[in-house]
Amino acid sequence: MLTSRRFAPALVSAALVGVAMLSAGCSGSGSSGTDNAASRAGCDPAAQVTCAGAAAPVYSLADVQPKSARFGESYGLEAFRGQVLVVALLAGWCPFCQSQAERLEALRLELEGQGQKVAFVTLHAADAEPYQAFITERCSFPMLQDTTAASAWAAHGGEKDDMFVYDAEGKLRAYLSASALGSRIALTGDGAGLLKQAIADASKP
To answer: Whole-model pTM?
Structure first.
């Protein structure tokens, strides 16, 4: 029965950089914490993937978003170098994730309308493959399907609902942890402001 927030094995319960988990049926209630865990004192990017300055994980996964220009191809995050990148860890079976996909799409369109080139990618849970359409039908940006062999979720050191913001050089600038931010992980009100600020910060040299 798929009810646990911790969807992939060996996930690191990590420090966060910006958003929290919403108690939305398939998410547990988290305690609020520092908005940007990636920038916490003493965090070593060479040792922890959730620290500010850490390089984006390397993997190659299939793009299963029919609306994506690279639908059906396998590639990794290096394909987005040169622009700010938001990576969201979502699972199609979760209603909250479905809503987040719609909110991410709305934010993408808002930023695009302002002339900002920001890439968005869903990293879909390995065990949620049968539920891909519940996410892809709600947005148009790429969705990379994780696998047990690739374990991309674990490579990010995150868990369901987490978001990561990388700069144009592929370095982590913000880690928005659902378990640390609780309901503020939702991209409404304060949560949307947190992600927008993280994107703005990642856009700076």
So the answer is: 0.82
